[in-house]
Amino acid sequence: MRLFIAVDLTNSVKEQLKTIIKDFAAIRGLRFIEPEDSHLTLLFIGESNDQEKIKKLLEQINFESFSIETDKLGYFEHQNRLKVFWLGFAKSNELNALQKQIRDLLPFVESDHNQFNPHLTIARANPDVDASRLKEKILRYEVPVLCINVYSVKLYSSVLQNGKPKYALLAKIDVKK
Fold this sequence. Notes:
Elements: E1 2-8, H1 11-24, E2 30-32, E3 39-47, H2 51-58, E4 66-78, E5 81-89, H3 93-105, E6 119-125, H4 131-140, E7 147-150, E8 152-161, E9 164-174
Antiparallel strand pairs: 1-3, 1-8, 2-6, 4-5, 4-7, 5-6, 8-9
């Protein structure tokens, strides 16, 4: 079972994601996410049968509620090929501390991403993506400032059904302070 830990988005943030998707829809080669399924991943665990152990460890998380804001659009590349188009967040010491706390509680989780780069995936790129057009539009686009209040983190499982991920909530950890 594929597991990840995430922060859910408000309906207003999901609505704004729909607007961004509409604004970039004409760019060839992008496979857009479903805004209803969007979330801010704090830690991707991957395949694991340790969900009960992970749930117990996550109960130790201790944080105060805080807010984060979006501030940029960007993309990830791999081997000089555009892979993911995303909406990023302004630097947040509270978010970084929460993510570090989770990583420290789960040292057995291997990650190929050493640096936490908080973002919401907007689209994944096909090999034929018009990367130059996307990059040019990103530079000119006025990024909306969206606010997310973080009151809890959630452990989810992810299963592919008909080529699309389906998420199931396994645990919710609320603010303790």
